[in-house]
Amino acid sequence: MQKVYESATAALDGLLRDDMLIAAGGFGLCGIPELLIDAVVDSGVKNLTVASNNAGVDGFGLGKLLDTRQIKKMMSSYVGENAEFMRQYLSGELELEFNPQGTLAERMRAGGAGIAGFYTKTGYGTQIGEGKEVKTFPTGPDGQEEHYILEEGIFADLSIVKAWKADDTGNLVFRKTARNFNPPAAMCGKVCVVEVEEIVPRGSLDPDHIHLPGIYVHRIIQGEHEKRIEKVTTRKREEA
Amino acid sequence: MQKVYESATAALDGLLRDDMLIAAGGFGLCGIPELLIDAVVDSGVKNLTVASNNAGVDGFGLGKLLDTRQIKKMMSSYVGENAEFMRQYLSGELELEFNPQGTLAERMRAGGAGIAGFYTKTGYGTQIGEGKEVKTFPTGPDGQEEHYILEEGIFADLSIVKAWKADDTGNLVFRKTARNFNPPAAMCGKVCVVEVEEIVPRGSLDPDHIHLPGIYVHRIIQGEHEKRIEKVTTRKREEA
Amino acid sequence: MPWDRNQMAERAAQELEDGMYVNLGIGIPTLVANYVGDKDITLQSENGMLGMGPFPFEGEEDPDLINAGKQTITELNRTSYFDSAMSFAMIRGGKIAAAILGAMEVAENGDLANWMIPGKLVKGMGGAMDLVAGVEKVVVVMDHTNKAGEPKLLKECTLPLTGTGVVDRIITDLGVLDVVEGGLKIVETAPGVTEDEIREKTEATIV
Amino acid sequence: MPWDRNQMAERAAQELEDGMYVNLGIGIPTLVANYVGDKDITLQSENGMLGMGPFPFEGEEDPDLINAGKQTITELNRTSYFDSAMSFAMIRGGKIAAAILGAMEVAENGDLANWMIPGKLVKGMGGAMDLVAGVEKVVVVMDHTNKAGEPKLLKECTLPLTGTGVVDRIITDLGVLDVVEGGLKIVETAPGVTEDEIREKTEATIV
């Protein structure tokens, strides 16, 4: 079984079609699948629904797919960094399904774990809970009934994910907060394509340090990443 | 905040009471909280409900708590290695709630993740599904409705867990298949007490290699473990 | 004289106790970290980190190490990283002792609105709904009134809710109020601010 | 001549294709690992491991490294470890391509019973219910009849079920049968075994 591909375009070959649901990893611009997003742009596939915590920024990350109008609908928790997004949304060109951030992450994990739905307190009594089934469970401190809403698993057609390192069997290691949504996004796709900074030989990753086992990974590419920083914040040395 | 205790008995001080629900890590005799089980035996607390994949063997692991009749009810997936368990169960002295192994693990994780219930296909149409809510979701390959049953999160009063290493803030690292039920069991307890083979200085665990963050860990002890092997299976060198 | 932003943050820091795991929202709540002093506080960043450290020195920014506000930060010797599902598992599961958040409106029953103004810019709730649903103690830090001088502590919120009955304590530029049976209770006033002034600038029932 | 245990395992190994992630049950299914040959198969052990290796050399047993049958094993250069929740996430989530399991009874509609004989020793289902509910292809390896010569491939199971309509293929000492619309279909016979003999020893409808 050969999981390693030459390029992002090669790795996505045969996987893209109009109207599909794509789950994408990343938080802000941290840990986003830059190379795969570019290849999706190049493919010209359209009417995409994309489940991703954020929508990139203007001209970078998923923002590129917004510029080309390839996205029909976003499932996100926060889209505040993208003016083109706002323009399309407010003009009605783009659908937006807001998900609380933890609900979005759990919905992705659930899809990848064969959990069709789960009950969470998050969003009960708010707009997010409207139209969703409500159930009570005796989970209060003294067994009082508390209100939960039903959220459904996300079962994506394709996952696009960024990791730090992979071996050729697809075992993945992430780095610091670039892990974020990548493992749950990877889990919920029928097919999962991963871009990494380095493909290492089999046996060079400690089996206890693997963050996502290769069973969740179908195709891998290695490439150069811009890794743009959204907000550079620093302190002066004299403050230390 | 001081999480490190001198002994298993000291670490459990004030946490034990009759009729409580304890979640225990381990699979078979691998990765079980040996020292904490001994301390629970010594405490004499009784009418316990214990959520644990297995029930130890006669005279070791949770088997000790069966010998002393401190357990009222087990929530387990497999109890085939324990004759005293069978005797008590068949004579009606012990209650047993069978849980499919994955359902048990997911119920523990759910409790620790604020998920009151979730829908799984596991057990639908079997004894395990009897009396549980059934719901369909359109998750079939072509969007067909499939049957799921509702399983509830486990919210334990206390978790007892075995890890390999901890730092003094409770960050945990497990070793090989001794990880098993320990993270989900740790997550679902109001209070979680952990025994480890080694407490290491803060900063000596790579933050990317921590399997369970210290936020889930309230008390820690270090001690010597027997680590009994249930079934020694080997091959001869000449087979290699 | 009412408290300024830093004084509000300093006052909010008094809510934190040794050993707590805490999530700080964007804005004034972020400043709270400057005032925890010797207390052993572990900061969670909901993008997947416990043990958030200060901003990096210039030139040492790491694109793989940001906080929930997308700012570059550093790690500590207690830090652990995890994915977003695990991050919100601990939030939703009640493992975070306290969250300190900003607010647009708070109602006398503890309802909170802090994520959306219909018809205006819609950014999203991020992790706020999960935090208020899961965290043990929710402390809100906010101006007592809006720029027009109108109350933001209301009988009922007018904006879309983030959570119902979730706020425990409110720290404003004028003082500290708790959400109690029947309304809000004044716990403390800023220096030179009277309870009467707070009553006057509050629509919510003061009990 | 009917197949013996090893021949059944060898036949079952033919079900496995290059690149598959596979879970093998206890008993004859465990023997399947001996017959995968050059195929790139990754074995899952549901206690938290992908890439299960052979038994260790004497003296090299590691108490922290066992399989789901509680036997000491070894790791490979592709191995990863994870917790039980993640292990069953991948099982339930349909990421395991095939499971090869033992059975007490199989019904013509694919119902499987392999975990409990009421009134006799009750050990539990372990991970079997999760596996049959989640895995793409479920292959059962079993004796065609019980010790009294009575059929174990039935119109309906008499024992408590492990799952409903979950079995895809059955490999017995007499041959290979598929669960199809309307009943079981004979796909292959063991050497010297006739289809008539299989029909005679099967209660389930043969189509």
From TrEMBL, chains A, B:
<dbReference type="InterPro" id="IPR012792">
    <property type="entry name" value="3-oxoacid_CoA-transf_A"/>
</dbReference>
<dbReference type="InterPro" id="IPR004165">
    <property type="entry name" value="CoA_trans_fam_I"/>
</dbReference>
<dbReference type="InterPro" id="IPR037171">
    <property type="entry name" value="NagB/RpiA_transferase-like"/>
</dbReference>
<protein>
    <submittedName>
        <fullName>3-oxoacid CoA-transferase subunit A</fullName>
    </submittedName>
</protein>
<dbReference type="GO" id="GO:0008260">
    <property type="term" value="F:succinyl-CoA:3-oxo-acid CoA-transferase activity"/>
</dbReference>
<dbReference type="Pfam" id="PF01144">
    <property type="entry name" value="CoA_trans"/>
</dbReference>
<keyword id="KW-0808">Transferase</keyword>
Automatic annotation (TrEMBL), chains C, D:
<keyword id="KW-0808">Transferase</keyword>
<protein>
    <submittedName>
        <fullName>3-oxoacid CoA-transferase subunit B</fullName>
    </submittedName>
</protein>
<dbReference type="Pfam" id="PF01144">
    <property type="entry name" value="CoA_trans"/>
</dbReference>
<dbReference type="InterPro" id="IPR037171">
    <property type="entry name" value="NagB/RpiA_transferase-like"/>
</dbReference>
<comment type="similarity">
    <text>Belongs to the 3-oxoacid CoA-transferase subunit B family.</text>
</comment>
<dbReference type="GO" id="GO:0008410">
    <property type="term" value="F:CoA-transferase activity"/>
</dbReference>
<dbReference type="InterPro" id="IPR004165">
    <property type="entry name" value="CoA_trans_fam_I"/>
</dbReference>
<dbReference type="InterPro" id="IPR012791">
    <property type="entry name" value="3-oxoacid_CoA-transf_B"/>
</dbReference>
